[in-house]
Amino acid sequence: MADTPELDERKETILHAVIDTYLATGEPVGSRTISKYTDLKLSSATIRNEMADLEDMGYVVSPHTSAGRIPTDKGYRFYVNQMMSVMKDINAREEDVQEREQEVQEMKKFLNEKVDRVDTLLQNVAKLLANNTNYATMVTTPQMSGNKLKFVQLTALGDKKVLAVIVMDGNLIRNKVFDFSEEITQEQILKLNILLNTTLNGLTLEQMNMSIISKMEQQAGPHGPLVREILNAIVETIQNADHLQIYTSGATNIFKYPELSDSSTASELISTLEEKQMLTNLVKADLEGDNETGIQVYIGEETPVETMKDCSVVTATYELQDGMKGTIGIIGPRRMDYEKVVGTLKTIRTELDGMFKKQS
Amino acid sequence: MADTPELDERKETILHAVIDTYLATGEPVGSRTISKYTDLKLSSATIRNEMADLEDMGYVVSPHTSAGRIPTDKGYRFYVNQMMSVMKDINAREEDVQEREQEVQEMKKFLNEKVDRVDTLLQNVAKLLANNTNYATMVTTPQMSGNKLKFVQLTALGDKKVLAVIVMDGNLIRNKVFDFSEEITQEQILKLNILLNTTLNGLTLEQMNMSIISKMEQQAGPHGPLVREILNAIVETIQNADHLQIYTSGATNIFKYPELSDSSTASELISTLEEKQMLTNLVKADLEGDNETGIQVYIGEETPVETMKDCSVVTATYELQDGMKGTIGIIGPRRMDYEKVVGTLKTIRTELDGMFKKQS
DNA sequence: ATTAGCACTCATTTTTCAAGAGTGCTAATA
DNA sequence: TATTAGCACTCTTGAAAAATGAGTGCTAAT
What we know:
2 copies of one chain form a homodimer. Chain A has 360 residues and is an alpha+beta fold. Chain A has 3 domains: 9-87, Arc Repressor Mutant, subunit A; 92-143 and 244-359, GAF domain (Beta-Lactamase), CATH 3.30.450; 149-241, Heat-inducible transcription repressor hrca homolog, domain 3 (Enolase-like, domain 1, 2-Layer Sandwich), CATH 3.30.390. Chain A is 49% helix and 17% strand. Chain A contains 12 helices and 10 strands. The first copy, chain A, has helices at residues 9-25, 31-37, 44-56, 73-90, 94-113, 118-133, 186-200, 210-220, 224-241, 263-275, 280-288, 338-358; strands at 60-61, 70-71, 136-140, 149-158, 161-168, 172-179, 246-249, 295-299, 311-319, 325-333. In chain A, the strands form 3 sheets. Chain A has a 5-stranded antiparallel beta sheet with strand order 7-3-10-9-8, sandwiched between helices. Chain A is elongated and about 90 Å long. The A-B interface holds A 116-117, 150, 153, 155, 157, 161, 163, 165, 167, 171, 173, 175, 177-179, 236, 240, 248-249, 251-252, 255, 261, 263-264, 266-268, 270-271, 274, 360 and B 116, 150, 153, 155, 157, 161, 163, 165, 167, 171, 173, 175, 177-179, 236, 240, 248-249, 251-252, 255, 261, 263-264, 266-268, 270-271, 274, 360. The structure holds a DNA duplex (30 and 30 nucleotides).
């Protein structure tokens, strides 16, 4: 608003100190503590005055008259913003990289071991993150946009059943078995294969509109209804392939934080993680808000998921070469270790890209 | 042991009454309550004496001197055994069927609506069960035994990649893409297809032993290593197809039962449900113990999963026509409504069979 | 064999009290 | 004018004490 910053330097230092200590201890922090903690060389009385100001400005509150202060969402927001802008320049502090080196190595090793499917990989990522951070985590499958059909291959299975193998760009493969009302011959299948592939190959889902479909139905002549059935299956399958899946892990980590572990809050949270339905909001918000870093921090009420208003959520977008995007999220208490979490997510984001290149 | 039953009729009645009331209230039940509850027309003092006997025999305990009694595992076991033997004759009480009729209808409707994949169906079953019973639930994918290979189909994807579509009996289909070190021609693929299918079709996993593999390697001549690679992929894929998947739901229902919701117990339980790893014990135990009814009740310490020793678990085997077997489990507090749970599971077991026939 | 009566036990709840942490305000100080 | 020391006051926390009440075990009466 004003062009002078709202907080002078001393207030900033004090606020930072308050939040730092609160993150570490989880207890309201008093003026005496700060007066010792900082190198400001100020008495507790002075700090008290400053803290009263900070309270007026809405950065901190005291839970009751004779307690220390705890940060408000606004306070956390200040802290995180400051942190993010510092991190942008430095990208990753030497010591942090050092410290996380081992983690990454361990992760790589673990991931390379028994991973033959992307979903297993993602599940493992969730699990590892949960273990390393002590927060709850979620990881989504990558979402493709503008999926192109590479080819379709029909095969008779006998018994009036036909197997359609649908291959999309990026070698994403889906199967669909369907029953016909009557037995189908080898020639018919051959014909259908040719018809489907000459018309559809290279098209995106959006391009398979009504006009193309009805044209194909005409060309198929007597097999019109059959073609329609197959097309529907294809469309549905492609849509399904794009179906968002969410893996979560470490839900019970929330019991490590007293402010979240009273049973009603905990129950609600775990439910949300278990049902996964509501987590899609998180993903949407994450994919839309494209800041440069690919990292998004939601503090308390800011989070797009109703049931998580007592938590903070940090999300990261990971992106594969083909423009497939997915989301990783970390859910913890407001007083989470933002610095470590953001750092870890930045690392994972990068690593994940490399790993996917190895997997097909 | 002795040929006279350990409990005379009066003791049985009283024990039954104690357990019944305890199931309903969750509080230790005292002698006065029982003296009113039963039609035995006995004073509380008499009941007190009988209860003291029951305590000596290990069917009940009092949590402290001046409290009522609660059932021990042995007590529950008696209760459940009695119930199961009664149910075997009656199969399903008229009123229960009536009462559950609506549930089943609702379920069928829901399941038929948006279910196009077996795994979604099973997930929904878990969810519905959890909602209807207020306990935590798990459902496994059906396990096949002696999976036979129907055929394999290799297709070039270009870019040194080959798609293998593996079709098993029961039209279970898996895909696997793999990279070769060098480009592969159309003829080579054709040859490989023929070689693979003439040799392998109709074989189970167990039959693909070393002698067959090395024989094929020889026949393939220069493509030996290639064939080996493909075979490995096939074997792995089939094993993977048989990979047990477990869906859980309603984990947070455990918060409805105070005896389970202190945070360490709850955390451990939810973890187990989330990780799913340990639940396989449950499945194994369920599939092995083949009693006539297909229903198995584990009380407290009896359960094959360590972390669930404060719970009771009821499992049911469902079986599809092709001999595929899966497990449904309900996890709740010791004082769960065994009668309702067993009844519901019996119904679901039957319904599920019908539904699978509809799905492919 | 059953029951009434009574003393006793122990968990639970409520009340009371003391300790401690931290604040806000005022007056003194540099 | 900005800082600090000092003090009264507030409110949480924890422990101890007291009251409540449900339920038992035992004895003596029926």
